Amino acid sequence: MKSLEELKAIREKMQGQVSLRGEDHDNTRVVVGMATCGIASGARPVLNTLATLVQEKGLTGKIAVTQTGCIGLCQYEPIVEVMEPGKTKVTYIKMNSEKAAEVVERHLVGGHIVEAYTLSGADIK
Amino acid sequence: MTEISLNVLDVAENSTRANASLIRITVEADERKDHLTIMIEDNGCGMTAEQVARVTDPFFTSRTTRKVGLGVPFFKYAAESTGGSFVIQSEPGVGTIVKAVFVLSHIDRMPLGDINSTIHNLIVYHPDTDFLYRYCYNEHSFTLDTREFREILGGVPFDTPEVAEYIREYLNENKLETDGGAVY
């Protein structure tokens, strides 16, 4: 069984560090819809991919990956919303892990919205 | 839903929205009884008798974003279609208990799926809620109590990458030790 000693070591390491996370209003928020509709259409791997990549790329100080309930557009789930301070919210629809990885690379790192996956870019009129 | 673990994630989300401070989740696989039992118990706001009576109706929801509420009906149907059972008990101000029993060997039973991801997601994305998770496989079991973790961690939050990783490893290693890597 995994020991709780390791957890004590983590506390000792972390308590010595000053929080690197910036002020909340400076942070980009990446929100994944995790209600029944989202979960049933595959939101869990999308959330996990986003969280893992943001962590691997060392972006946790300025990007917060969180989850929310039903966004009200169940037919377009899994949905990922990207909210950058001072910019219009971007809504990505029908996401999967591969698309999520592309959004991290091109949008969150590169600064260019991946229009093809957005609600406004999709051909759904 | 393609996995029982996704139902657990979905139904436990309801507990967090009911402002529960402690959610107990039990997963119990017993090959001798041929049962897979899932219990989700919370100390949230609870439901009135009228709400409990209607919560398994797909066309009832307390939400305003849409007119259907499929989470509980999906879970109930998944359990009952294996010849199992589903019970939901609730009391306003006390909390809610959901218990689903699946017949393990039934052909229509969904796989349990990635239960570790479900528990990990719940803990990391609801850092202010406590979880008591118990996993039993035949006569073996392990427990994860976030109250115990919280005490050791002092103020270090569960969504700190190092802590989130520790929780992931704790679940993976202990589940493997408990069920010997059984896939079901």
Itemize the secondary structure elements and their pairings.
The complex is a heterodimer of chains A (125) and B (184).
Chain A: H1 5-15, E1 28-33, H2 36-40, H3 43-56, E2 63-68, E3 80-83, E4 90-92, H4 97-109
Chain B: H1 4-17, E1 22-30, E2 35-42, H2 49-54, H3 71-80, E3 85-91, E4 95-103, H4 115-125, E5 130-137, E6 140-145, H5 146-153, H6 161-179
Parallel strand pairs in B: 1-5
Antiparallel strand pairs in B: 1-2, 2-4, 3-4, 5-6
Helix pairs in contact in B: 1-3, 1-4, 4-6
Overview of the structural elements:
The complex is a heterodimer of chains A (125) and B (184). Chain A has helices at 5-15, 36-40, 43-56, 97-109, and strands spanning 28-33, 63-68, 80-83, 90-92. The N and C termini of chain A lie far apart (54 Å). With 125 residues, chain A is α+β, with helices and mostly antiparallel strands. Chain A contains four helices and four strands; from the N terminus they run αβααβββα. Chain A has a single domain (27-117), classed as 3-Layer(aba) Sandwich (Glutaredoxin). Chain B has six helices and six strands, in the order H-E-E-H-H-E-E-H-E-E-H-H. In chain B, helix 1 packs antiparallel against helix 3 (71-80). Chains A and B meet through helix 1, helix 2 and helix 3 of A and helix 1, helix 4, helix 5 and helix 6 of B.
What brief labels describe this structure?
heterodimer; A: 125 residues; alpha+beta; Glutaredoxin; 4-stranded mixed beta sheet; 4 strands; 34% helix; B: 184 residues; Heat Shock Protein 90; 6-stranded mixed beta sheet; 37% helix; 26% strand; globular
The count of DSSP E runs of length 2 or more, i.e. the number of strands of chain A, is: 4
What would the principal axes of the Cα set say about the shape of chain A? Answer: globular
Kindly report the greatest chain-chain contact and the residue count on each side: A-B, 30 and 37 residues
Rg of Cα set of chain A = 16 Å
* Average pLDDT of chain B: 93
Name of the CATH architecture of chain B: 2-Layer Sandwich
Based on DSSP secondary structure assignment, what is the total number of beta strands of chain B? 6
CATH topology of chain A: Glutaredoxin
Q: What composes the largest sheet of chain A?
A: 4 strands, mixed
User: Low-confidence segments of chain B, ≥5 residues, pLDDT <50?
Assistant: none
CATH class of chain B: Alpha Beta
